[in-house]
Amino acid sequence: MLGMFGRIMGRRAPAEKGMGEKVASGARADALARAPSPGALAAALAAYASLVGLSCTAMVAWLDPACALPARTAATAALDPALLLANALPPVLTCLVLLALTRRPLLSAVLVLLLLYVLYVANAAKLAHLDTPLLPADFVLLAHLGDGGALIARYMPRRVQMILVASVGAVALIALRERPWRPLRGLARGLLLATSLLLAGTLLLDAPPWASVRAKEGDDFLVWSPSTSARRIGLPATLVRRARDLKLALPEPDRAEARALLDRYPGVAHAAEPRAPPPGGWPDIIVLQSESFFDAARLRGLESNQVLPAFGRLAARSRHGNLWVPTYGGGTIRTEFEVLTGLAMRYFPDVQYPYFRLTTRPIASLARVLGARGYRTLAIHPHQRDFWNRAAAFANLGFEAFQGVEHFGGAARVGYYVADEALVDHVLGELERARQPQFLFAISMENHGPYHDYPNADPARLAAQPLPPGLDADAARDLQGYLHHLENADRALGRLADALSRRPRRSLLLFYGDHLPALPDVYAQAGFDDAQVPGEQPAPWLLYDTADRTASQVDTASFYLPSLLLERAGIADGGFFDVLDRLRRADAPARRWTPVDDDGLRALSLMRQRGERIAPPQG
């Protein structure tokens, strides 16, 4: 009886005194006699895999963007079986690997279902706010959050947070209470692990037998539009497909196209030595990248006199206009990378986050050009240094130093983050202490979402923000929260420009918004004056020169900004930026436009990223 009880509980019962050897020997014989046959074990594993597969399929049909709508409006039979299989298969194989490693069936199944649910929650939030699905590169970002995930958690509904907390507690309880599955050990366990890993590996590599499943996807997978792909073929299938692209292999540049481009623009790419500064010295250069800065008057129902008074005042004496950026609702570092390098993200379609894949070694940049002219090059961002991998990226982009949130001790906060006014104070303090020309690249943080229920806000000012008609309560709350931050960003811009105008040294202030704010409900309910979709709206920009108050409107793209800035400063780099400046003058960026000399610029950009020298034309 004791031996049987021990087997049921998954642990050996203690032998009675004087009968130890006999009881132990009997227990071993009894265990061997009751061990399942290989066929019975295989049948049990098949039944387990089928049960997990059904559970995963149900979750896919319920939550996946490629299946969720048909699942709610039509019979389950209307769903494409191949699509369900392609999306249920990855979690089932993951579960079998976990089972082989842990020997705990319930724990493995619950872990996989919880992981699948978390992926769908994250995917839904990312699609709603950024119009981009969850991608393998997002898992790299998890190691570089810096704030322990607080920023991401703020976008998670309280209901989801409670479900996750309860689920983690259930997983912990199962892990403590569930006994290992006795029959799964030794050779059987090894075979299950090897088979599961082999099947998972062939799935990732698109080898037989899964190639036929992928063939079913056909043209539904669009590498240049992951959001469309995820809505067509499903999230797990998209993750598997994109996982094959994690290792970046830059395409070979078409050097003949690059040569032809240089021949069409003679007088550039001379690799000239830096010339001496003008009599008054090089101007201080301040670039202020403003988080989610957007002209809200583009929304139906809001007028230009209701928002951005300081920006409007400065635009009337500056170069300014619409800025076409390579991201929407988030992905700040895509715009940031373009401004610092002049490399357009359109030429790197497989790269979602450039600071993880395009700045892994020292590369040419605006900071390097200005550093060679004697500038002190400093990046400033009142947030964690490791977020977006900025600390490593800025070092490889050639900045002498990077000051993160640790340099803002005691600074005022509005919402969750350091106020824009505090950032302006910091920039002015760095300029005051300078003994050489400065290149300060400042990145604001205050206006990062979410835009409701945030602390350190003035309730009266929040309530006084203008609203277009027709917004529901949630959308109105989000827009008023955003406009509260936007008002602060605009005021800080005006104060910075006024302070620069009083300094004896000439200053250039390049200011721009990195992308539209993530306000999907507002855009859906209010719409835009031009009737275009949110992802095709520009951000505003201006270049304020304290020595030249000439105003002009220039619509441009973020990758052209460094050449425009150097041209105004009177600095020629004798290379890529000079070529870019010639292209900028011949181009007319607009919605859905193709850059002038697109093939040549693509080839030149790939050469630049690879570190190849751009030689001057021959002859």
Explain briefly what this protein structure is.
By secondary structure, the protein is an alpha/beta fold.
**What is the structural class?**
alpha/beta
Strand content: 5-15%
Regions with little confidence, pLDDT below 50 for 5+ residues: 1-19, 70-77, 215-219
**Integer-rounded radius of gyration:** 29 Å
Distance between the termini: 98 Å
Q: Count the strands?
A: 11
Helical content band: 40-55%
The residue-averaged pLDDT reads 86
- Distinct helical segment count: 26
Q: What's the oligomerization state?
A: single chain
Largest sheet: 9 strands, mixed
Shape: globular
Q: Secondary-structure map with pairings?
A:
Layout: H1 2-9, H2 20-34, H3 38-63, H4 68-73, H5 81-102, H6 105-130, H7 136-141, H8 150-153, H9 158-177, H10 186-204, H11 211-217, H12 226-233, H13 235-243, H14 255-264, E1 284-290, H15 309-315, E2 319-324, H16 332-341, H17 354-357, H18 366-371, E3 376-380, H19 390-396, E4 401-403, E5 413-414, E6 417-418, H20 420-432, E7 438-443, H21 459-464, H22 473-501, E8 507-513, H23 520-526, E9 539-545, E10 552-553, E11 556-557, H24 561-569, H25 576-586, H26 598-609
Parallel strand pairs: 1-7, 1-8, 2-10, 2-11, 3-4, 3-7
Antiparallel strand pairs: 2-9, 5-6, 8-9
Helix pairs in contact: 3-5, 3-6, 5-6, 5-10, 5-11, 5-13, 6-9, 14-26, 15-22, 20-22, 24-25
Quickly list its features:
single chain, 619 residues, alpha/beta, 9-stranded mixed β-sheet, two-stranded antiparallel ribbon, 50% helix, globular, disordered N terminus
